[in-house]
């Protein structure tokens, strides 16, 4: 059975159409862009490379789920340490993403991408070779930190080195990659553990990353253009510290509380969270008014597309993460399916998501942001269908019976997730691409973790008293409310998407 997860500068006025471009000397290397405007320098090979760099960290958020029981048997980890194996990655990943985006703006996005890929390969190797449970926990946290260097450079590079229709398509594909990586992670993890390649067992889940991360590194050196903000600034240390503390105060107790029995420190951290957020907001506002360099410029959040898009991102990713975790647990603990069978039960969802993702750019071009509203409606239909099936037919519930509901949910999620990144970043000035993508990626990863922690904990707490079917239906009902929230917020977006 799976264990529970978890598992810039002072903003200048955006200046469009002005660029300063310098060309790198090696002919094999792509151009270096120091501006923010799209230059078309990111070719197809470069786009594939950065998308591979995005796929690996997001895949690893969920791929470890099905390996946790085997890790427990092999390393005698225990529930609390197993929680840290999963949560350590997600926490380090989430809290360092904005900093990773800012460092890319300052020192160069390709440089940070390459550094992140190298660190991801090294830390994945350390995870795969870990001799003990606490060594694995430390390696997973380091792996999450390396992912936080890697992932923000993807969106920032797409924003800085592409333009027009090409940028729109690239952002749509990025959204599709993000959703598919979650589903594929659950399926692939089960297959790898069951295959026990060369006797590696659970270690293959981590060792698989090494060759692909090294390939990403080599391809990036050749095909990915360098870009950075033209007005490099030092890191906002007070803002970074407060943002990190705020996220830690929220994520650590929610992701670890159930495993350790909700001691006093978990409640104290949760109580401290709103005060840390308030302090962070004040520090950032004061820094921007003084001409400083806030880690998250308040003016960035005053962009309607950014603010409302982030409002959609939180319930969307929280629901997505919680759905994947709760359904996987219900299939394995309730229906006694093995990890491979439980993973394959989600294939209709992956097919639905992929199908919707393919049509996403064309639909957005025709209907604009209303595609997100349509996605929320379809997702709600899928969740309602699945909940009704669970309540009416739990005794004979099977992957086949759940297929219509999860397929509809996948289509809806694809219609939301694919254009979401395009909507959020559509009005962000390219010289602020790093911090903008870092904020969005932080919302994504934090919300995934929150969804697993909150909905997963709720399900596991209710299942013994309500029964698995009613607990699952209740959690699906909460996610249904999230779909209506997404619907309401998406209708407030400007219809035309840049």
Automatic annotation (TrEMBL):
<keyword id="KW-0812">Transmembrane</keyword>
<feature type="transmembrane region" description="Helical">
    <location>
        <begin position="45"/>
        <end position="68"/>
    </location>
</feature>
<feature type="transmembrane region" description="Helical">
    <location>
        <begin position="371"/>
        <end position="392"/>
    </location>
</feature>
<feature type="transmembrane region" description="Helical">
    <location>
        <begin position="80"/>
        <end position="100"/>
    </location>
</feature>
<feature type="transmembrane region" description="Helical">
    <location>
        <begin position="201"/>
        <end position="221"/>
    </location>
</feature>
<dbReference type="GO" id="GO:0046677">
    <property type="term" value="P:response to antibiotic"/>
</dbReference>
<dbReference type="GO" id="GO:0005886">
    <property type="term" value="C:plasma membrane"/>
</dbReference>
<dbReference type="GO" id="GO:0022857">
    <property type="term" value="F:transmembrane transporter activity"/>
</dbReference>
<protein>
    <submittedName>
        <fullName>MFS transporter</fullName>
    </submittedName>
</protein>
<dbReference type="InterPro" id="IPR020846">
    <property type="entry name" value="MFS_dom"/>
</dbReference>
<dbReference type="Pfam" id="PF07690">
    <property type="entry name" value="MFS_1"/>
</dbReference>
<feature type="region of interest" description="Disordered">
    <location>
        <begin position="1"/>
        <end position="36"/>
    </location>
</feature>
<dbReference type="InterPro" id="IPR011701">
    <property type="entry name" value="MFS"/>
</dbReference>
<feature type="transmembrane region" description="Helical">
    <location>
        <begin position="173"/>
        <end position="195"/>
    </location>
</feature>
<feature type="transmembrane region" description="Helical">
    <location>
        <begin position="337"/>
        <end position="359"/>
    </location>
</feature>
<keyword id="KW-1133">Transmembrane helix</keyword>
<dbReference type="InterPro" id="IPR036259">
    <property type="entry name" value="MFS_trans_sf"/>
</dbReference>
<feature type="transmembrane region" description="Helical">
    <location>
        <begin position="472"/>
        <end position="491"/>
    </location>
</feature>
<feature type="compositionally biased region" description="Low complexity">
    <location>
        <begin position="20"/>
        <end position="36"/>
    </location>
</feature>
<feature type="transmembrane region" description="Helical">
    <location>
        <begin position="310"/>
        <end position="331"/>
    </location>
</feature>
<feature type="transmembrane region" description="Helical">
    <location>
        <begin position="112"/>
        <end position="134"/>
    </location>
</feature>
<keyword id="KW-0046">Antibiotic resistance</keyword>
<keyword id="KW-0472">Membrane</keyword>
<feature type="transmembrane region" description="Helical">
    <location>
        <begin position="404"/>
        <end position="425"/>
    </location>
</feature>
<feature type="transmembrane region" description="Helical">
    <location>
        <begin position="264"/>
        <end position="281"/>
    </location>
</feature>
<feature type="transmembrane region" description="Helical">
    <location>
        <begin position="233"/>
        <end position="252"/>
    </location>
</feature>
<feature type="transmembrane region" description="Helical">
    <location>
        <begin position="446"/>
        <end position="466"/>
    </location>
</feature>
<feature type="domain" description="Major facilitator superfamily (MFS) profile">
    <location>
        <begin position="46"/>
        <end position="494"/>
    </location>
</feature>
<feature type="transmembrane region" description="Helical">
    <location>
        <begin position="140"/>
        <end position="161"/>
    </location>
</feature>
């Amino acid at each position: 059975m799976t264990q529970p997860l978890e598992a810039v500068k002072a903003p200048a006025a955006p200046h469009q159409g002005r660029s300063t471009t310098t060309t790198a000397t090696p002919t094999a290397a792509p151009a270096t862009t120091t501006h923010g405007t799209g230059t078309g320098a990111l070719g197809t090979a470069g786009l594939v490379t950065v998308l591979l760099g995005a796929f690996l960290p997001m895949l690893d958020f969920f791929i470890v789920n099905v390996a946790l029981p085997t890790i427990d048997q092999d390393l005698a980890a225990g529930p609390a340490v197993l929680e840290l194996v999963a949560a350590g990655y997600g926490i380090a990943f989430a809290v360092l993403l904005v900093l990773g985006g800012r460092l890319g703006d300052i020192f160069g996005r390709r440089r940070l991408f390459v550094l992140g890929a190298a660190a991801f390969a090294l830390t994945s190797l350390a995870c795969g070779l870990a001799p003990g449970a606490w060594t694995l926990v430390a390696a997973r946290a380091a792996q999450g930190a390396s992912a936080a260097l890697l992932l923000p450079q993807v969106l920032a590079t797409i924003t800085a080195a592409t333009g027009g229709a090409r940028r729109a398509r690239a952002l749509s594909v990025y959204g599709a990659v993000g959703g598919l990586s979650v589903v594929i992670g659950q399926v692939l993890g089960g297959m790898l553990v069951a295959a026990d390649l060369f006797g590696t067992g659970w270690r293959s889940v981590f060792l698989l990353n090494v060759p692909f991360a090294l390939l990403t590194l080599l391809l990036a050196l050749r095909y990915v253009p360098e870009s950075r903000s033209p007005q490099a600034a030092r890191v906002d240390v007070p803002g970074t510290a407060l943002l990190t503390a705020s996220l830690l105060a929220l994520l650590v107790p929610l992701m670890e509380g159930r495993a350790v029995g909700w001691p006093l420190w978990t409640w104290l951290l949760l109580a401290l969270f709103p005060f840390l957020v308030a302090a962070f907001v004040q520090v950032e506002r004061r820094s921007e008014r003084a001409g400083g360099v806030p880690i998250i410029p308040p003016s960035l959040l005053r962009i309607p597309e950014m603010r409302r898009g982030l409002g959609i991102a939180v319930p969307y990713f929280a629901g997505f993460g919680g759905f994947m975790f709760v359904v996987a647990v219900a299939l394995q603990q309730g229906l006694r399916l093995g990890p491979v069978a439980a993973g394959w039960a989600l294939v209709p969802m992956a097919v639905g998501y992929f199908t919707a993702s393919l049509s996403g750019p064309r639909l957005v071009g025709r209907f604009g942001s209303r595609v997100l509203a349509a996605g929320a409606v379809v997702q709600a239909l899928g969740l309602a269908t699945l909940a009704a099936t669970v309540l009416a037919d739990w005794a004979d519930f099977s992957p086949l019976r759940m297929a219509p509901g999860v397929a509809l949910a996948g289509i809806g999620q694809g219609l939301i997730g694919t254009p979401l990144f395009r909507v959020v970043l559509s009005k962000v000035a390219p010289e602020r691409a790093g911090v903008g993508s870092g904020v969005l990626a932080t919302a994504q990863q934090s919300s995934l973790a929150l969804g697993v922690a909150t909905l997963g904990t709720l399900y596991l707490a209710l299942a013994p008293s309500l029964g698995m079917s009613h607990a699952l239906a209740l959690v699906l009902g909460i996610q249904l409310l999230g779909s209506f929230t997404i619907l309401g917020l998406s209708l407030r977006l400007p219809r035309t998407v840049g």
